[in-house]
């Protein structure tokens, strides 16, 4: 994917394609494949990034799109209308219980960067159990989590430079064990998938047409990282943040723009119906 100056919303500008690249990799070598009889859940959907990637490949795919945030569902509804996507339903659901959705309903369930739920470190198994419950036997769950979010250092270092007397805000901090492949594998195993799981790595990027644009896009998250800063402090933050982005080990100039690399895990769990067999 090429860096773009035409992201359509604040979410798109802030994420800079990083979730879209993972979504597109989730769909590669999908087993079982999506067919005309598939019924798909795009869970913790944000503005419908996974659905968008599915519709590019399978325009008539039947998809239920859910998120906890009514604002995200509104954005997704607008996108569905604008794109003229058919066979789509939307709903407000907590990914930890999916209580509005019936057992054994879907052939494919996707949760792209919806795990863990921020502030709930115990949410992993709740989520995978809910995914297992709503999947039909023969279906597959795909779940992604972060392994390495290099760009957070640029925010922390900029905050430290401007307010050297206080610890930077860390609203997106996760315990290191939650960034491991083994953590994702364990959540899928314990959620019901047993031995029918696999975890693979995925490189992704946050991208923009220029460094200045990347700074502007990422600074849309300033309320998270620089809450309570005065306008004068925020003015000082910006050039420091720009310099910190340039220092990141995964920062790159590329054809058409700049990008910062990151790493995610894609976990796959198959519901085969043999999960309760006792191994010998
Ligand atoms: C990082 S975004 C990922 C969005 C999207 N899947 C994508 O590929 O870009 C995380 C999403 O999880 C949603 N979310 C947070 N807590 C949730 C919960 N308890 N249940 C359902 N969705 C939740 C947020 O509203 C947000 O849309």
From TrEMBL:
SUPFAM superfamilies: S-adenosyl-L-methionine-dependent methyltransferases. CDD domains: AdoMet_MTases. Residues 40-139 form the Methyltransferase domain. Coiled coil: none annotated. This is Methyltransferase domain-containing protein. It comes from Phialocephala subalpina. The lineage of its organism: Eukaryota, Fungi, Dikarya, Ascomycota, Pezizomycotina.
